[in-house]
Model the fold of this input.
Amino acid sequence: MGATLKDVAQHAGVSYSTVSRVLSGQPHVRPEVAARVREAAAALGYVPDGRARSLKTRRATVIGAIVTDVCQEFITPVVRAIEDVASRRGFAVLLANADDDEGKEESYAELLLQEGVAGAVVAATGDRSRAALRLAQGGVPVVAFDRRVDAVDVDSVTVDNVGGACAAVSHLLAAGYRRVALLAGLMIAGTARMRCEGFEAAHRRTGIPINRGLVVQELRTSDEAAAAAAQLLEGPRPPDAVFTTNARLAAGALAAVRSSGLRLGSDLGFVTFDDPLWTRLLECPLTTVAQPTYDIGCRAAEALFRRIDGDAGPPVHEVLETSLQVRASTMPRAPVPVSQ
Amino acid sequence: MGATLKDVAQHAGVSYSTVSRVLSGQPHVRPEVAARVREAAAALGYVPDGRARSLKTRRATVIGAIVTDVCQEFITPVVRAIEDVASRRGFAVLLANADDDEGKEESYAELLLQEGVAGAVVAATGDRSRAALRLAQGGVPVVAFDRRVDAVDVDSVTVDNVGGACAAVSHLLAAGYRRVALLAGLMIAGTARMRCEGFEAAHRRTGIPINRGLVVQELRTSDEAAAAAAQLLEGPRPPDAVFTTNARLAAGALAAVRSSGLRLGSDLGFVTFDDPLWTRLLECPLTTVAQPTYDIGCRAAEALFRRIDGDAGPPVHEVLETSLQVRASTMPRAPVPVSQ
DNA sequence: CTGAAAGCGCTAACAG
DNA sequence: CTGTTAGCGCTTTCAG
Done:
């Protein structure tokens, strides 16, 4: 186990550095010798030691990715994309789940720093994420995705959260819904906050008042969303539509809708941010705000590699568009009948 | 950027190795000196270099995880679990998507070897995975999960695929379904193969013949599953129930069912391996074979750490149970009416 | 209790 | 074209 450069050199009857040259593809080596070296390496099952190399060269072939939770449907395609472009460049990715916990986030940043990653993409918990700051201070290129960070001005790849949410809620309002409930995630996250803003903007624009009693924030799990939705639905003045700021909350809310006996589309309008496959499988397919998830990951990773490759230009902030997928859950509301 | 041990030593007015001792928590250092060192380290924003440490100690704090695809719903909770237990032990995880491609799998194994990971959990593509073998040969502890590997006898954590599938199909048969279609994934994967075996076992046990025309294998994507299902459903002798070997295929098949106009539960029985949240949200909730996904990840990671900690006992193979979640999609079939 | 010194495996000048 | 040499940042004997 573990042949080293020296072993290979001995076996091939050349020096230490010749082997290094051959194996790192440098020119100026007689083909004949090169062949002998390669043979020796193969024979010994030689595997270069990335740590030693990286220690010497100050270059790493690992990047870090700090995300909120791999289990979230929105996140997986972006992780996948990051991994794809990294792997295409011969890099591996160190994955970190921060769970929207700033403490975890920081300790992961520290860990990435220790591991000497070449760069990191991070979906920060809050806007003032110290993690991104810490990494940047440590000289590690950082690009933010999903959420921007304020603490330090780094590249970012996000979507137009306000616009997406506003379009969704405007669509609901235009379809005749008047009492739209808002089920939102943690306000520490810029995404949730901006989606709430979009919700407000849509109301403002159309002059329809927001029913504060129908706004529930700081929802973390789908169970919490289910409970909140149930309470609203059973309340004295229930909503006639629901907007959720992410798919996880949507799943919870839908469970509550199901047990309320209300029928989506006819009795209750529904739109959610995020567009997982299953929204199309429901009896009443869901209208959604789709994000270009895979593309977000690609662009974030590409931006990172641009920095790793030495680009020192001013930070660039890419804002991608969402697209409203209109489906049956927001069919135009029949006007309230005048007479029974 | 990048204060080193030497810098800290200078700053604190002590020697090189004293700093090392303090920072790695060794005893035999005067508290007073230790405090001064710690101060200096903090002041300089010192971050230990994991690579250098690992190079010297031959111990790493990174483990690798080779999976098929993070986007698969089954996989995310297990990745999450692996990450959770690793992080609890101060380890990070290097994630690799092999996509059921043996080439990719091997090159990732090589990469993990180069990075000097302390160990790796791998969901191998085929039974004869050279990746696991390569890692094991390189002296890296390996534990297989989801699928066992034959090429080398390492610990494994899997579920009873044959039993789970057999239970599901037996349930279908007992409920009166007689023409059960089988939509299966890649036969190179032991999981798919064993689930097919379960399908056969259930038929064998009940004496009901398998309709070979209703068996479709080597399905990769949900679109392929949709196409296969559509073809079956529109054929001359359509199935009266469908069993899919994973959630991805189920989603595709369901799309086909939806456009066929057939009603789940009443017109067509349906069971799938895997139990994502959304199966409960459908108009007709799905009967499923649930795997203890998070638990699989935990046990795999724990087994790995046992090896990393030096356990040299014989390989242990944990086989976890699946559980059949009976829901509306398999309601007992009404006997065919004798007269109209 | 603390310092000096020898490498871990590798690369990158610098000589030959 | 090839060999020698000096470290990268750290841990770890071995002396004091």
Observations:
- Residues 14-18, 21, 28-30, 33, 52, 54-58 of chain A lie near DNA strand D (CB under 10 Å from a C1').
- The mean pLDDT of chain A is 93.
- Chain A has three domains: 5-46, 51-159+293-320, 161-291+324-330.
- Chain A touches chain B through 54 residues (CB under 8 Å).
